[in-house]
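Section 5.1 Outputs to date
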Amino acid sequence: MSRLASLLLLTTLAVPVSTARLAAQQNASPAAPTRVAVTVALVDDLPYGGGASAIVRRAEGAFTDDSRHDVIVLGSRGASARELSSAVMDLLAIRGQQGDTASANAVMRVRPRAGSQGEARRVLPWAQRVVNDVRRAEPRLIEGLGEVRAVDIWLPPQQRKAPQLPGVGN
């Protein structure tokens, strides 16, 4: 009988400890992401008008394929490290204003442009490797583009900037 009582007492003490640990794990806030994914796709003809590349932002639930919310679309003839770098920098600026995920679907053309002092924009050191990877990638379905060569890359998360009210803090 004492063995049964000991087992019952041990079980009674163990359950609250386990429950408390489980509750602490559930209440812990998830860590902010250290990287946010974007799909880089290569197409023969850019479906969004002129230019060598475009950024497609897709809202939550707007797609069922396995690509990411944001898609950088490169035309196969204009795909270069410079073009990808320009698209990535534009996307980071857009995410800084609108957040890491889009609230509405949108397409933005990327136009090559100079930096702030008129010099050519910086080419990201890893951009050529990504262009090479996407050229060798197996085609996969991306809604709105069809079966295209694509790879996923991860960019740093951007803090959404609070809107400035006219005349406040200026």
